[in-house]
Amino acid sequence: MKIIKSIVVASFALLLVSCFGFTNKEDTQKEATYVPQEHTEVAYFASGCFWCVEAIFESVVGVEEAVSGYAGGNTLNPTYEKIGTGKTGHAETVAVYYNPKEVSFETLVTVFFGSHNPTTKNGQHPDYGTQYRSIAFYKTENEKKIIEDAIKQLNAEVYKRKIATEVTKFTKFYKAEEYHQDFERRNPNQSYVKAVSVPRLNKFKKKYPQLLKKSAH
């Protein structure tokens, strides 16, 4: 009986600090509707829970907006509940809207690899499953080369050929439900945010202070 109780308690504790353990749909609207400018370009990255990834990219100079969503699979119109099964093929992905005059795609790739563990297959602690896998999406051959060059260098100098990141041609991005947008900022006291998202963001800030907006310091 004690063993069963321990398992239940452990499972509940894991749920509290899981990206998939929160489905409160209140506070659904962003404060303002983002409108891309003529100069704006978009890059797409998946590296675990999109609550964390969105907050990281939004702290970077030149990034105008980051939007949480789903990409990398073949299922039409994926939802948070559906991708949580790990059967849709999609990963939690962030669309990064940026000004190429202020930040390059190459720098965004540096942010991507520098803000998660790219050697972990299908997950970033404490979230595991194909929906949390590491993917760097490219739209052009030049973007693909930038990503592959970064992987080659990191494998040689840091990760000893252990990088598990997928390099995938971008096809379609599905915006996630509104309650996921700016989740970390809107839910500062949520258990996962305090235990995982904020520490991950702070670790990134400490590592790359030169890339941060003044408001992010």
TrEMBL record:
Domain Peptide methionine sulphoxide reductase MsrA: 43-192
Reaction equations catalysed: [thioredoxin]-disulfide + L-methionine + H2O = L-methionine (S)-S-oxide + [thioredoxin]-dithiol; L-methionyl-[protein] + [thioredoxin]-disulfide + H2O = L-methionyl-(S)-S-oxide-[protein] + [thioredoxin]-dithiol
Entry keyword annotation includes Oxidoreductase: yes
Signal peptide: 1-25
Keyword Cell membrane: no
Pfam family, one: PMSR
Gene Ontology molecular functions: peptide-methionine (S)-S-oxide reductase activity
Entry annotation: catalytic residues: C49
Domain of life (superkingdom): Bacteria
InterPro entries with a match to the protein in the record: Met_Sox_Rdtase_MsrA_dom (IPR002569), Met_Sox_Rdtase_MsrA_sf (IPR036509)
EC numbers, comma separated: 1.8.4.11
Record key words, sorted: Oxidoreductase, Signal
General function of this protein: Has an important function as a repair enzyme for proteins that have been inactivated by oxidation. Catalyzes the reversible oxidation-reduction of methionine sulfoxide in proteins to methionine.
Similarity field: Belongs to the MsrA Met sulfoxide reductase family.
Protein name according to UniProt: Peptide methionine sulfoxide reductase MsrA
Organism: Polaribacter marinaquae
Lineage: Bacteria, Pseudomonadati, Bacteroidota, Flavobacteriia, Flavobacteriales
